Amino acid sequence: MASINRRRDRGNRWEVRYRDPEGKQRARLFDRRVDAERFLTGTEHSKLTGSYVDPALGRVTFAQFLAVQYRPTMVSLAASTRGRDESYLRTHIVPTFGARPLATIDYAACQAWVNELSTRKAPATVVKAAQIMGKVMKTAVRAKVIPHNPMAEVSLPTITESEDVYLTPAQVEALADAMGEVAPRYRALVWLGCYGGPRIGELLALRWTDLDFLRRTVTISRKVIAISGAGLVEGATKTKAGRRTVTLPRRVVAELEQHRSAYPSPALVFTSPEGSQVRSGNLRRRHWAPAVALAGLDGCTFHDMRHTAVSLWVAAGASDLEVAKWAGHSSAAFTKSRYAHLFPEHGEALADRLEAFIAASTPTPAASVVHLRRY
Description:
- By secondary structure, the protein is mainly alpha-helical.
- It has helices at residues 33-49, 62-70, 79-97, 107-118, 123-142, 169-182, 187-196, 200-203, 250-262, 280-294, 302-315, 320-327, 332-338, 348-359, and strands spanning 3-7, 13-19, 25-30, 211-212, 217-220, 222-227, 231-236, 244-247.
- The strands form 3 sheets. A 3-stranded antiparallel sheet has the order 1-2-3, covered by helices on one side. Strands 4-5-8 form a 3-stranded antiparallel sheet.
- A hairpin with a 3-residue loop joins strand 6 and strand 7 (231-236).
């Protein structure tokens, strides 16, 4: 039976004695009877609802829980996702919470951490770190180590999306020419990125066997990313839709043929001067940024090559289904939503069709009207 008794031998404090769901006798001391009663009521309720958490388990530190119970759940993650999460844990989360017992990590501590991190890092970084922290604490709740997730109500900074950059054909050529001056071995990468639409990780994983010069196609089926502590990791594209074949303009094929003659490689299409696989970070810092500056396209990113490809496909008359297929999107609806402003169905074209409806309007109905009898 549960009970509350005053313990004069324990500083005149109130002792709650109760049994946990496994029948083990437990006790806890409180300075005030009202706190003891509140604790006992909550404990009995949690036993009835199946939400009881052993207070002793909350004494395990965040770092210990991470190593013993959370990391085993990461095994099923893709190598790239696992590497990213490990990096965030090591850099942004463990330094703050690693030595703290899980039971002491409350909403206030989590909100204070987010607020402090926001003074040093971009909103997108803070949000991703908070999401990972939330996953760890959610796992602790499921493991019945803590009663609730303290990250559930934490306020996060707002991510302000930057404007996408869409290069014109003239700007694509200018960027390729600039890359030809800065690092000629990556000139063809600009052409392929801006007309074929691969992501940078997909470009750097391309092999010559992925290119069919006769049919003028490139097949995209893998990607490579740099993972802290693991180096370059190559794997399949994220989704089945991401494995796609894109037909290229003749000019782009010609650039790739010239690239193959100038920089022969037994496997990879784009390599470092030493013949190894290219790290996107090195490429961005050493070659991309100087070429972008030389071309007068400040702010242009790797991903803007992909945006450019989509915009050029649409301008050339591709349907939303064709764009979705070439971009590797899982549905045309996503493509239409993401790039709605590029499709001709919006704006002037739609307004012109509505104008035609207005011009064709008549004072009489377009179809006969049938009066329904009332019963």
